[in-house]
dUTP diphosphatase (Petralouisia muris), 144 residues
Amino acid sequence: METIKIKYFDSELDKLTYIDGKSDWIDLRASETTELKKGEFRLIPLGVAMELPAGYEAHVVPRSSTFKNYGILQTNSCGVIDGSYCGDQDMWQMPAYAIRDTVIHKGDRICQFRIMKNQPAIVFEEVDSLNNQDRGGFGTTGVK
Ligand SMILES: O=c1ccn([C@H]2C[C@H](O)[C@@H](COP(=O)(O)OP(=O)(O)OP(=O)(O)O)O2)c(=O)[nH]1
């Protein structure tokens, strides 16, 4: 069990809930009603700041129904929340692009997150050859 310190920017907003047994991803809510015109980009406020457990970062992705319900795409595909993003004003946000006119209402659950362990420290060792066989990619194994 890990503890996340959480600050809500709006007392009216429902608290985040961890629904044990169904999925370990936790839904995030828009903290303001946001109207977007087709082709518009906006950072949608999520109304929370958190201090993650030491050695963790969080990944934020859309819910599977978000595009169908709102016609928005998360522009960075997966948001990375660093452990150092833990100040009182470090509110989580979802960068969103609207493919049609749309309204996201305050309190709507539009994306979800989970925490992930930081990767180990990395050093690069430069070489002339990797001395491995090429695998190939980008369609080389076919579609059937
Ligand atoms: O979808 C996201 C992505 C990031 N963040 C916050 C948390 C993250 O720790 C901070 C900084 O993000 P990132 O490291 O991606 O951006 P940057 O390096 O500060 O800026 P740049 O986009 O120029 O790389 O912004 C969000 O709230 N939502």
